[in-house]
Amino acid sequence: VQLQASGGGSVQAGGSLKLSCLASGFTFSGYRMGWFRQAPGKGREFVGQISQNGGTTAYSDSVKGRFIISRDNAKNTVYLQMNNLGPEDTADYYCAASRIVLSGVRIPSNYPYWGQGTQVTVSS
After folding, report:
1. What burial letters (b/e) apply to 29-51, b meaning 16+ CB within 10 Å?
2. How far from each other are the two terminal CA atoms of the chain, in whole angstroms?
C-alpha cells in the first residue's frame, strides 16, 4: 500500500494550492479518503474526507467554504483544492485511506493507510 502526496509549496495569503495523492497497492475505489494536517507543535487535525464514489464530502469548520476535496477513481487519485489560504493553514498535509463509516472520519486512528505528507507554507 502506498499513498504519495504532492503539490505542497509556499504561497502568499489569499493564494491557492492543489494537492494530489496517488494511491497504489489497494482497491482505491473501495476506500474513503481523508486529508489531515499537522502544524508544528500541534496534533494531527482533520481537514476533510470524501466517500468512495465521491458523492459525500465533509470538512472541518476551519476550511469549509475554502477547501474542496475530489477524487478520480480511474486515476487512483484524490485531490485537495485549497483556496483563500491564510497563515493558519501552514502545516504538513497528509492523505489517508479508510473503510470507516462517516461518523468516524475525523479520527486519525481510524485510517490504516497514510501518505508521507506534503508541506504547505502560507506567508502573510
Report:
1. eebbbbbbbeeeeeebbbbbbbb
2. 37
Distance CA 100, CA 123 (A): 35
The per-residue pLDDT for 121 is 98
DSSP label at 37? E
Phi, psi of 28 (to 5 degrees): -55, -45
Give the integer Cα–Cα distance in Å for 60 and 53.
20
- What nine digits make up the cell of 78? 484524490
pLDDT tens, residue by residue, 96-116: 999 999 899 999 999 999 999
Of 58, 52, 56, 57, the C-alpha closest to 73 is 52
